[in-house]
Amino acid sequence: MDIKKMMRKEILNFQAYIPGKPIDEVKRELGIKGKITKLASNENSLGPAPEVVAAVKKAAADIFRYPEGASYLLRNAVAQALGITRQEVIFGSGSDEIIEMLGKVFFDRGDEIVVSEHAFIRYKMAGDLMGARVISVPMKDYKHDLSAMRAAVTDKTKAVFIANPNNPTGTYNTQKELEEFLESLPSGPMVVIDEAYYEYARVNKDYPDTVKLLKQFQNIVILRTFSKIYALAGLRAGYAVASSEIVECLDRIRPPFNVTLLSQAGALAALKYGKKQVKRSVAVVEAGKKYLYSELEKLGLPCVKSAGNFILINVEPARGKDVFQKLLKLGVIVRAMDEYNYPGFIRVTVGTAAENKIFIKALAKCPGA
Ligand SMILES: Cc1ncc(COP(=O)(O)O)c(C=O)c1O
Fold first, then answer.
1. Of the residues 9, 198, 214, 281, which has the fewest C-beta atoms closer than 10 A?
2. Is 263 helix (H, G, I), strand (E, B) or coil?
3. How far is the CA of 196 from the centre of ligand 1 (A)?
4. What is the pTM of this model?
C-alpha cells in the first residue's frame, strides 16, 4: 500500500500544529524533578472559579451518558448573555474546532483566504487543509494592517481572518478600524473575528463591540473561548457567534458530540459563577504586564505591548529557540516563535506574580538574551 498515493494532496506537506510543551513532557525529557513553570500556552494559571470545579465533579457521575450534542443549555446561556438568539451560537471543542469547521464548510480549491502574516496559525492551516490559497498580508507595527488586507481581497476571497487581539503579537484593531474595514468590503467574503482574549482586551476603551456589529454586518463570525480567561483550556469549549444561516451550515458538519458532558457543565458554571474570577484575572494580568514591561526594559529586551495575557519579546541577536531551550533547562516553559516567522522572539504568558518573577529571574540568566 502506498500511503502517500492514498492521501489527499493537501495533506502530503501538511505540518502538525506545534503546541506549547506540556509540563510532564518537559519533566520526562529533561529529568527535572522540581517545579516547572509553564507560561507557554496563554492559559490562566489562577485556575477556574471553585463553583466550576464543583460542577465538573458533579457532572462526572453522568459520564456514561452521551452529552447533549448541540450543547443546548450552553447555547441558550451564551445567547442570553449576549442578547442574541440561540440560532446564532454554535459550540466547538475549543474555538479551534470551529476554525477548522469553517474551512471544511466554506473553503475549496481555487478559493482564497486572507490572513495577516504573523496571525494565529490555525487560520492558515484551515485554508491549507482544504486546498485554498492563503494570502498572507504583512503587518504594520505588529498589527493587522486592515487596509492592506482589504486590498488583498478579490472575487475569489471566501474569508478574511482577524485575530483581535492577535496571538502572538497581542495587538488589536479598534472599533473604528474594524467598522471602516467591514464597510469597505464587497458583499462576498465572510470576516472571522477571533476574540479568544476578549475579556482581557475589553479593558481598552476603543476595543470593538463586535456583537453589536452583527446586526449591521451579516458576514461576520465572532469566535470566543472558555480556554483563556475562564481557565478551562483542558475542557475544550469555544463558540462562534454568527448569523443563523452561517451557524446552520456549520451545524451540518459539527461532530455529533463535540463538546463533552464535562465541558458543557464546566462552561455553563463558568458563565454563571465566573464574574469574580474574570475580574480578578484581568487585574492580575494587568499588574503582571506592568511588572513584566518594566523588568524587560531593565534587561534591555524590547517587547510589544499586549491586549492579551501574553507578551511577544524580542531577544535578538539571540535566537528565540535558544532562549526557549535555556529557559526550559531552568524549569520555565515559554514559546519560541519560529513558526510565526519571528525567529528572534519568544512569547511568554503572563502568569501569577510569583510565576512572572520566576520567569524574569530565569530570563536574566540567559546570556545573549
Ligand atoms: C487567537 C486564538 N484563537 C483561538 C485559539 C484556540 O483556543 P481554543 O481552541 O482553546 O478555544 C487560541 C489559542 O491559543 C488563540 O490564541
1. 9
2. helix
3. 6
4. 0.97
